[in-house]
Design a protein that fits this description.
The complex is a heterodimer. By secondary structure, chain A is α/β, with parallel strands linked by helices. Chain A contains eleven helices and eleven strands. The relative contact order of chain B is 0.24. The chains are: A alpha/beta, B alpha+beta.
Amino acid sequence: MAAMTVKTLSEDEFFYGHKACAGCGGSLALRIALKVLGERSVAVLPAGCMSAVGFNFPQLCFGNNAIISTFAGTASMLTGIEAGLRARGITDFHAVGFAGDGGTADIGIQALSGAIDRNDDILYICYDNEAYMNTGIQKSSLTPFGAKTTTTPAGKNIRGNLRPKKNMFEIIAAHGIPYAATASVGYLDDYMRKVEKASKIKGTKYIHIIAPCPTGWGIATDETVEVAREVVDCGLWYLAEYENGTFILNHRPEQFEDVEHYLRRQNRFRHLTDEDVQWIRHCRDEKWRAIHENFKEKTER
Amino acid sequence: MVMHMKPCLREHIPSKLSELPEAPAYEAGYLVTKNAGWRSVRPVIDREKCVGCLQCYLYCPDGVIYRKDGKVAVDYDFCKGCGICRKICKLGAIKMEEER
């Protein structure tokens, strides 16, 4: 079966007229996923940017069924929706959740872990903008090392976030989930293929997509897609899948782009010293050493 | 012509208590405000240069670029003027023009 492309993608729009900032990466991740999944999708959104910009009563920017969950309860509400519709004899639908990095890796991780443990038939998409952007840029456990947020300010002694980004993709994979993947809003063909693939797998599916935030990252509104490509090209993010107990690397940059260029163009990293940049480069190389050891290479394009 | 699903502007804005639903639920795709006022620049598509590759349509976070006669057009009611489309266009067929 041919992979979904822009030409075959549905022209329906299910996330339209929303109040997200101009150039929002998260809204792009939602929009494309819903176009792939179609109108028989029930979307669950916890507290976060996408619920704040999508539901402004009476303005409802979702063209499909959509509901706001508690911050911690994205996955448990998905479980309930899936079970409820199934109990009513309805089977042709997708229960899909869209939570940010904080709602996934901090606040919602317990409910998500429980849903994966039960192997509920749901799709969970984490749009990762690397901080609590909706409330004004506070650090989450997916904020990368060195990033300046309002709770990890950059001063003379401490230069932004001290902790590395939590490895959420591999934490999810460690549950033995049927399908997990990483993606980037800079590479939508790869993302569309993964959403479509996930939609056809029974059981719990998880997709983690990097979604730059112009407001929180300190980039221009027209740089979102560029930066989302660059983070992959410089090796600080990777496009991979986990399936049948195996990690698969989808895309290996032949030569990494310069980490420093990626970092310095964003206001949140502008305070970093040359040593900090060197440390980030070192951590990237360590990560890729582990990827070489543990991931198989396969490209399905 | 095939009709496509897309949330759209409605004329009626519920304001009285009797118009509000009892449960916190409402009709999907119900828009009552535009986003056009957010914009300081607007994308203008050169239909001579456009080859209909649809990359701008794909990468628009607001989905305001739509397919039209093998090429694309912009819904200016909801475009926020972010400029992603201009950068993604390899043919230079999109220019950002100042809003007056």
